[in-house]
Amino acid sequence: MAGDTNGATRCAVIVGPYQSGKTSLFEALLAACGTIARKGSVKDGTTVGDAAPEARARSASTEVTVGHGSYLGDSWTFIDTPGSIEFSPDARYAIMVADLAIVVVDPEAGKAAAAGPILKFLDDNDVPHVVLINKMDTDNERVRDVLAALQGHSARPLVLRQIPIREGDAVTGYVDLVSERAYRYRNGEPSGLIELPVSVVEREVEARGQLLETLADYDDALLEQLLEEIDPDKRKVYGHLAETLQADLLVPVVLGAAERDNGVQRLLKLIRHEGPSHRASVARRGIAVEGEPLAQVFRTVHAAHMGKLSYVRMWRGTVKDGDVLNGVKVSGVYRPIGGKLDKMPSAAEGEVVAFGRMEAIQTGDVLTPAGGVPEPGMAWPAPPQPVYALSVRVPDRNDEVKVSGALAKLCEEDLSLMVKQDAELSELVLWGQGDTHLRVVAERLRNRFKLNVETGRPAVAYRETIRRSVEQHARHKKQSGGHGQFADIKVTVEPLPRGRGFEFADTIVGGAVPKQYIPAVEEGCRDYVRRGPLGFPVVDIKVTLTDGGFHSVDSSDMAFKIAARMALAEALPKADPVLLEPIHEVTISVPTEATSRIHGILSSRRGQILGFDAKDGWPGWDSVTAYLPEAEIHDLILELRAQSQGLATFEWRFDHLSELTGRMADTVVQHREQVAAR
Ligand SMILES: Nc1nc2c(ncn2[C@@H]2O[C@H](COP(=O)(O)OP(=O)(O)OP(=O)(O)O)[C@@H](O)[C@H]2O)c(=O)[nH]1
Ligand SMILES: [Mg+2]
């Protein structure tokens, strides 16, 4: 039994691969709890989850949805999360505040790998979880094969709690392996008890034996009973199941079809009786039971009319509207049900609520009246590094400031989103987790902030340098009436090794160029190299001022600056200019079965493989390191995912600049000229 529940609201988060049926399960759970009178469907766009227009347009979740329910007198919060890897931080943050996770998977062994990252995250963070093999109404694959495939991605043993009853090709019900009762699924209703079909008896005995044997690994008394062939007491078995789930020692696996409500009541009963209490999670996260109120923010939203909302789990105590936490006043306590928010006077221990207008508060923050300091067990997962970028153009110039403001808010909501203003190319660039992620960001700007933007492929940060030394003389002279201008200089321009940037020196003796004008010469040079003859910033050159002349009245800083610019503008095209392209060191993480395909991807993208190895701490994964030109990184993630069931990912950092010549270089320079001419 759940033990010390102290009546506090418990929280179950629904996670799992893309499109496995999480939002459908969320809907079915809310219906089973009586929160909603009529169930909606994902296909019709009528579910409580996915209320955001971006989610409805895709029939796929793009953000977290929270809902509440009461089941057999217990109070529950359910959190539906997006399955797409591009929105994975949302799911991870929700897991961090939940008592347990329900991992919804497809009934296909071939899709098991897609559950790998989430199972690993649950394992790494010791979060108790249950697996629901969903869509049993569509399936013909053997459940034990699906289970075996999933086991390859789980550090904890997975144990079947039910086996399917099949009639022909269809799964019509299940046998509960503890109670040894058989049930027939009924659409939209709780399953009905039936007689145990003879056809499943043999399989039932086998599967039940496996369940008990796995449990016996954690209990000597049970092991002894099994050795003596004594059938253990069912109540004791339930007790063992509860203990092992709450201690996150093993993972029960149940069957169902969320869309038809099949297996949903059974799942609810399982988490009710065997799942951890709120208190157990408080202990797991290293939080003291006694103390002042303590809440943790797992989601931040800037809602259209409500302003900023901080979604929290109440780990301890009660918070009232108007209370001050971390020095910030709580202006409104709301209970979210999908897109709706119900105002409440206070939030009690265990609950998931949204606090209004806590401007300085961020996702991951621990809130207390005195100012929260997270316990070590409350460490917040770091957001993933961005892997995909799009440039953003604001067609209406009047919107530019508003777009920056709205993007700042979206970045606060979404820690895996970054905005970079590239000053050199005067380009606004969004960095995120994939094409869908960034398109959803653009849609949020339109739907929520009423701002239009156009997206495109971001420019590559090319540079240029020279390959030959050149001596150059330049004279700037304007002496037609009034105050004239005069400056005369001789410079040597020479190439430097990669990474040295721009250097300036002078060898002037005897005041050929008076000392006070030399800084102006340097300034003029630096000004020019921001954009060289090929159209890009010039790096790795040295300019030495060797000689020159001046006029006692007409010379000025300005005149020497202009002369310097003239000198370089003439010198550089003669100095054998060459394009430099940024090369990054890319580390790709990939399931081993896809590693060979990664090699192909890298060589077709002008990559240079540096090495590959088993990935540390990730059984069944490899890590491939390579040099890759920046131009080839833009859509790399899309191809990696296409070749790895969506699982491969990469990290990257700038390594060096490398010469680019030939047709590719010509194309880059021509494109730059076209852009500049616009
Ligand atoms: N046959 C069948 N289809 C289902 C079942 N549950 C969900 N589906 C369908 O699977 C598709 C995805 O369902 P969702 O509930 O949106 O899945 P999800 O896991 O929330 O998807 P994401 O949020 O995009 O990860 C929809 O077309 C559903 O109709 C089920 O039990 N049986
Ligand atoms: Mg969903």
Task: Provide an overview of this structure.
The chain has 678 residues and is of the alpha+beta class. The chain folds into five domains: 10-283, Rossmann fold, CATH 3.40.50.300; 289-378, Elongation Factor Tu (Ef-tu), domain 3 (Beta Barrel), CATH 2.40.30; 388-456, Elongation Factor G (Translational Gtpase), domain 3 (Alpha-Beta Plaits, 2-Layer Sandwich); 464-575, Ribosomal Protein S5, domain 2, CATH 3.30.230; 582-677, 2-Layer Sandwich (Alpha-Beta Plaits). The protein is built from 17 helices and 34 strands. The strands form eight sheets. It has a seven-stranded mixed sheet, sandwiched between helices. A six-stranded antiparallel sheet has the order 18-17-20-13-12-21. Strands 26, 31, 32, 33 and 34 form a five-stranded antiparallel sheet that branches. Helix 4 (116-124) links the parallel strand 4 and strand 5 (129-133). Helix 6 (201-216) crosses helix 7, helix 11 crosses helix 12 and helix 13 (518-528) crosses helix 14. It is elongated. The mean pLDDT is 93. Bound molecules: guanosine-5'-triphosphate (GTP) and magnesium ion.
Secondary structure layout:
Elements: E1 10-15, H1 22-32, H2 53-58, E2 65-71, E3 74-80, H3 88-97, E4 100-105, H4 116-124, E5 129-133, H5 143-151, E6 158-160, E7 162-167, E8 170-176, E9 181-186, E10 189-194, H6 201-216, H7 220-227, H8 234-246, E11 251-255, H9 264-274, H10 278-284, E12 294-303, E13 307-316, E14 319-320, E15 324-325, E16 328-329, E17 333-337, E18 340-344, E19 346-347, E20 352-356, E21 366-367, E22 388-393, H11 400-413, E23 418-422, E24 427-432, H12 435-449, E25 454-456, E26 463-466, E27 470-478, E28 485-495, E29 502-506, H13 518-528, E30 541-549, H14 557-574, E31 577-591, H15 595-604, E32 608-614, E33 621-629, H16 636-642, E34 649-660, H17 662-677
Parallel strand pairs: 1-3, 1-4, 4-5, 5-11, 6-11, 29-30
Antiparallel strand pairs: 2-3, 7-8, 8-9, 9-10, 12-13, 12-21, 13-20, 14-19, 15-16, 17-18, 17-20, 22-24, 22-25, 23-24, 26-31, 27-28, 28-30, 31-33, 31-34, 32-33
Helix pairs in contact: 6-7, 11-12, 13-14
Bound molecules: guanosine-5'-triphosphate (GTP) and magnesium ion.
